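Many introductory courses stop at the sequence. We go one step further.
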Amino acid sequence: MASADSIDPAAVERFIGEPLPRGATAIRSDGESGVDTRTLLRFDAPLVDATGFAARLLGRDPKPGEDPVLGHFGTGIDWWSPAAGPGSAGGRADDRARNRSYRVLVVPKQGGMATVWLVAFSS
């Protein structure tokens, strides 16, 4: 994956197995491959779209107040600062069919928007 200046949303979507919401903005991504592959993703979207995206990855609605503890994954990446706040919802899930694990946090913002923080890795 690449920095925000050269991000390839199609590559991110292929890895996570879900399309980003059409209204996604401020998309940032970073990744690494070694024994496992890991992608960090952050974007803003309307709250309803952000919640739907998270639900598709988790296989359920994100749980209010659940913080999947994402911060340590992006150590050293200046834009990676996920933090749960009022109204946040999240969760963790494994998708054995795709060999993926997900941790996702949806943080509401003003104006009906939300920031989505996602860690996806091969498991």
